[in-house]
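hi! just following up on the protien thing from before. the input was this:
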Amino acid sequence: MRTFIQTSPFTVFLLIVPFIAWIYPELGSSHGPFPMSIVRDSAIFMIFFVNGCTIDRRVLFQIPRKWGLFAYIHLFSFVFFPLLVLVFNIGIYDRIGLPEEFSMGTLILACLPVTMTSCVVLASMGGGDHTSALIGAVTTNFLAIVVSPVLLGIISGIDGFGMEVIPFTLIFRLAYMVLIPVFLGYSAQKILGQYTDKYKRYFNTVNATGIAIICYIVFCDNFVNHDIMMCPKKHMLYLFLCMWGQYLFFLGMSYWTAKKINFSREEIIAIIFSAPQKTLGMGILLITNLTAASSSPLLEEKLALYALPLLMYHYVQLMTSSGLLFLLKKKVFLSS
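and the predicted 3d structure came back as:
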């Protein structure tokens, strides 16, 4: 427990964010006394700005040398993950009575790229190839600007939600809300020079703070709209168990397939901390822009519910990764 707290203190803080939101949800609601939608967008901007600051120009030239590893991460994130989640939705989630909003949230989750910060930090702390983890994270996030909206439009139609997602509208909105802060952060490296490297260790704190703010606002919206309160407790439990089982399944799948392909130990560590993980920042950005990219008039009222699977999956991947990191340090897992 001590190791978990030391390696991921913000994970512990995220666990109490729902209780903080529950105490006085009106304060953090998008329709409350403060312009929380601006705060949320600013937090998202800061997350991608920080990600731009952490991109090392030198590692981008290593893409041709490890094309097999990067191809694996991209195929896992944008092909295997969405297809299998679609199967889970049709074969499991619908049969156990998971609400349609939660099922749609799992599809949105499936279309997302990998995390840009935590996967690199975890791979580095676990003795893995953190450079490859960084390149995989950067490239999947840039591709996601186009790939994620197109994927969401395809699989939501297959699963029969009846929600017409307009990919081009989403692509345009994601492009300027992601590329601009990333480009500014990347350019800041040239302007600030050595100060960027000097204070790089604080970037993770800024990133985690932004995620905590986003989680707080989403939970406040859910409590104000009574979305969580009106949802049966068994459905919340089902969702949590489904997200945990889903993460463990993809974690095991990424480990097993990476071993079969004969990746090195360092590359396998980079893969298990990258391939099964999904970024919360891009997910919230995608959800908040769905209103402009859909013909459904009731969509805006359901946005907070769509975000719950993302939040639960984010909690699960952070807690499980911290435990996995503990096993790696104790050489119980992947010792040779």
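Confidence is low (pLDDT under 50) at residues 3-7.
The two ends are 25 Å apart (CA to CA).
cheers
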